[in-house]
Specification:
Layout: E1 6-7, E2 12-13, E3 19-21, E4 24-26, H1 32-35, H2 45-49
Antiparallel strand pairs: 1-2, 3-4
């Protein structure tokens, strides 16, 4: 699966490896949290302890 974030400056989709979000497939640089200016929340309990 590849990132479906449209990049208007280059007139194409990002195309980086991605995972699925409610807004579509997004890479780590284009997730909803990144769009809001935040870091991604931890995905596992072990990451939360660090």
């Amino acid at each position: 699966m590849t990132c479906r974030q449209w990049l208007p400056a280059v007139r194409e989709y990002c195309g980086q490896p991605a995972r699925l979000y409610p807004c579509g497939a997004r890479c780590a640089a284009h997730t909803p949290a990144r769009a809001a200016g935040n870091d991604e929340p931890p995905t596992t309990p072990l990451e939360r302890q660090r």
